[in-house]
Design a protein that fits this description.
Layout: H1 2-15, H2 29-47, H3 51-63, H4 71-86, H5 90-103, H6 108-120, H7 124-137, H8 142-154, H9 158-169, H10 176-188, H11 192-204, H12 208-220, H13 224-237, H14 242-254, H15 258-270, H16 277-290, H17 294-307, H18 312-321
Helix pairs in contact: 1-5, 2-3, 3-4, 4-5, 4-6, 5-6, 6-7, 6-8, 7-8, 8-9, 10-11, 10-12, 11-12, 12-13, 14-15, 15-16, 16-17, 17-18
Length: 324
């Protein structure tokens, strides 16, 4: 009983919720609905780059819990930590992650999140320790392995990054997800033959996302026609998959394929699901600039800074575009 109280106390510190009698209080249905509504609004504010407002809404969501600790509350805390960090409140974000780990010492997601923050703060040693703990407790979560791999690469630990991928390949399983993720990992290791083999197995198991990864493999292996066909099929089957389409657009832009990237971004903006609208619109402007269509870029940028006046980098770029 004492351990349960200790965990709940840690979460109370983290969320700054007010103790309201017994920690075993229950949520009313309307409070749970309010909580999810505040969470959703917080996510929208965060995607729009309004991190301070996002923190406020995540806190409002937590205030609805009446000190009940569950997966929803923990999930909101993760979002709150990210919003705190991006709002400039590094200390608060670290405290939030620390309290999550006080609540559960084996919380892989909290270790990874804190590792990313340490990474951005230039604390490579601390980030490495957090990433190692994330892998130790993540079980069979391929996403954590791949995210840690990317983080290790960012701080120059190339050998450890490669070792991370090799460890992920040792995870056993013959489900569609296993085939797909192993294929993705082989792609990252530039073993395209093995990647195609695993992804084909996943596609036979009706895994749609595997088709997207296979398109990336074909593109990297110089088979552009096959890649484009797979991209088209994937987008027809997954019209609401905004986050993946954003990544694909950014990948095209990183490869210097600005026309193709622009098509990705515009497809998303033409749809109804634009949770990352600020990021997508910013990318759209960059694509126009690289296509030397400065007239359209100016027009898009003027509308952008009207909607996002706090983006100082965009303000400076807007001034630059006036000279083009």
């Amino acid at each position: 009983m004492g351990q349960v109280r200790k965990k709940r106390s840690a979460l109370l510190i983290l969320t700054a919720m007010l103790a309201m009698g017994s920690l075993a209080g229950c949520q009313k249905k309307e409070e749970a609905n309010d909580q999810l509504s505040f969470r959703k609004t917080g996510i929208h504010r965060m995607n729009a780059g309004k991190y301070g407002e996002a923190v406020e809404f995540f806190q409002k969501a937590l205030d609805q819990s009446k000190a009940v600790v569950g997966e929803t509350e923990l999930d909101i805390c993760y979002y709150k930590a990210v919003a705190q960090y991006n709002s400039g409140d590094t200390k608060g974000a670290m405290e939030t992650c620390g309290a999550l780990l006080d609540y559960n010492k084996k919380d892989a997601r909290a270790y990874y999140l804190r590792g990313c923050m340490n990474l951005k703060e230039g604390k490579g040693k601390e980030a490495l320790g957090d990433f190692e703990n994330a892998l130790a407790y993540c079980g069979k979560d391929y996403e954590v392995y791949i995210s840690v791999y990317e983080g290790l690469l960012a701080i120059g630990y190339e050998n450890k990054a490669t070792e991370t991928l090799k460890k992920a390949l040792k995870l056993e399983g013959n489900s569609a997800e296993d085939y797909r993720e192993r294929g993705h990992i082989y792609y990252l290791m530039e073993d395209y033959k093995s990647a195609k083999k695993e992804l084909d197995k996943a596609i036979k198991e009706k895994d749609s996302k595997a088709r997207l990864y296979l398109a990336q493999v074909y593109e990297a292996d110089g088979e552009a026609k096959k890649a484009n066909n797979l991209y088209e099929i994937y987008m027809q089957e997954n019209k609401d998959d905004t986050s993946i389409m954003v990544k694909m657009g950014e990948a095209q832009m990183a490869s210097g394929k600005y026309k193709e990237a622009l098509e990705f971004f515009q497809r998303i903006l033409d749809g109804k699901n634009t949770g990352q609208e600020q990021q997508i619109r910013r990318n759209e402007i960059i694509a126009y600039e690289n296509l030397l269509d400065f007239s359209t870029a100016k027009e898009k940028m003027a509308a952008y800074i009207e909607d996002y006046p706090d983006d100082e980098a965009a303000q400076r770029e807007h001034q630059f575009l006036q000279t083009r």
